[in-house]
Amino acid sequence: MDQPGSPQEPQQAHGHDGLPGCHRHPDRPTGIRCTRCDRPICPECMISASVGFQCPECVRTGGGSGPAPQASAPRTIAGGTLTADPRLITKILLGLNVAVFVAVLVAQQAGTDLVNRLDLIGLAIDPSRYQLVGVAHGEWYRLLTAVFLHQQIAHIAFNLLSLWWLGPPLEAALGRLRFTALYLLSGLGGSALSFLMAAQNQPSLGASGAIFGLLGATAVLMRRLRYDMKPVLILLALNLAFTFLWPNIAWQAHVGGLVVGAAVAFGMVHAPRDRRTLVHVGTCVVALLAIVAVVWVRTLQLVG
């Protein structure tokens, strides 16, 4: 782990577009500075104060020269509590995906078709049970279980590598509760759009909708912090091209997750400080209500 520097250390070398590197993570260019010592700080290091942001050293010691605002309890850029392990929720999500994948393999060995009971499907007849199944039949849980469901090793490996890459910076910047809400709403948003636009008996599964939500949230956060947007925009363009050009990919889940993730993240990182909690809760509630409305409309189309 990088060791923090002292308040008297020289300014870090400039990064992309002339932005200085974080004094604790020199490879991360940032446009934000500590209001006490004026050193550059990245999203993982910044802590909300009554005015602006402060670095961890100044919060711990009250250091810095001259008068400075009194620091509040350590908070992330979105108002979440600063934690010792900014990867905890990411690790839990990784574990849940792996656990469901293992459960699917064990069920297959036991002769149980767990995939068909958990994947996303609008409305179909299950030949093994000779009955209607699907979200429109009342099995709304499929909108969520499908987000944690994978069948192929390559599929789960790609999604989990993406989660491990995108998750920790967002979790550090948003806080655990907000990051969890972002991930779940993105996954549900992808499921909802798939339910709305895909054929009623076309199954889909995977964490891709949630991953695209994290990618959209990353773009929003980088824009908020005035980072160089080129890398994330190139990555987003490549993933969208892959989504629409590669066969047998549920592009609806990718687009739905991307839109919901970007919208939720925008509400989280742009909320006014004095109404932050209200705006965050309102943003998540609006996103959830929009998802429910889409599912309700599609259900009426299929069974109404």
From TrEMBL:
Keywords: Hydrolase, Membrane, Protease, Transmembrane, Transmembrane helix. Belongs to the peptidase S54 family. Residues 1-11 have a biased composition (Polar residues). It is found in: Membrane. Residues 1-25 are annotated as: Disordered. Residues 138-269 form the Peptidase S54 rhomboid domain. The lineage of its organism: Bacteria, Bacillati, Actinomycetota, Actinomycetes, Kitasatosporales. One of its GO terms (molecular function) is peptidase activity. Gene3D superfamilies: Rhomboid-like (1.20.1540.10). The chain crosses the membrane at residues 179-199, 205-222, 253-271, 278-297. This is Rhomboid family intramembrane serine protease. Signal peptide: none annotated. It comes from Streptomyces yunnanensis. It comes from the Bacteria. One of its GO terms (biological process) is proteolysis. It is a multi-pass membrane protein. CDD domains: Bbox2. The keyword Heme does not apply.
